[in-house]
Design goal:
- Strands 4-3-2-1-8-7-6-5 form an 8-stranded antiparallel beta sheet.
- The two termini are 16 Å apart.
- By secondary structure, the protein is of the alpha+beta class.
- Strand 6 and strand 7 form a beta hairpin.
- The chain contains 5 helices and 8 strands; from the N terminus they run E-E-E-E-H-H-H-H-H-E-E-E-E.
- It has one domain: Nuclear Transport Factor 2, Chain: A (Roll), CATH 3.10.450.
Length: 157
């Protein structure tokens, strides 16, 4: 079972957790394990703000507003892509479920690599379900930004 990671890394999902595969060093590193997840203390206000940022980015994609979508990305993501157009081009090609979802359902908050991570179930245009996990990063201004996202398929029973 594979996944995509916004920074073009590869994730391998196993029973033991999610592993980041580093193509340069051919190593793997565990980035999340459900069994060892630390308890997070995120306020209700922060939970609402995190959801709002994700909703704003998805809405911006749906409206074709590259600048508004790019504005929700953390500074590291913005530096990686340089322009809103480059960022949106990548999302459209690699994350069509995020770019044009038919339906969006917010699920639980997790912790991935020390980041609060909001799970979102997306229904794509062909009717397939996928889970997007958004790693969120607090900014010095107190706002939240999206620091990464990876997709995992949802297996039907």
């Amino acid at each position: 079972m594979g996944a995509l990671f916004l920074a073009f890394s590869v994730l391998r999902i196993t029973v033991d957790g999610v592993w980041l595969l580093d193509n340069k060093e051919l190593t793997q590193q565990r980035v999340f394990s459900q069994r060892n997840a630390d308890a997070m203390e995120i306020s209700t206000t922060d939970l609402g703000a995190i959801r709002a940022v994700i909703e704003q980015q998805i809405q911006a994609f749906l409206q074709g507003d590259a600048i508004a979508a790019f504005a929700q990305a953390a500074p590291g993501i913005q530096m990686q892509f340089g322009t809103a157009e480059n960022f949106v081009r990548m999302v459209e090609a690699a994350y069509p479920q995020v770019y044009r979802p038919r339906s969006v359902i917010f699920e639980e908050m997790r912790q991935v690599e020390g980041f609060p991570a909001q799970q979102v179930m997306l229904l794509d245009q062909s009717g397939d379900l996928v889970r997007a996990t958004y790693m969120m990063q607090p900014q010095p201004s107190g706002r939240w930004k999206i620091a990464g996202c990876y997709l995992t398929p949802i297996e039907e029973d």
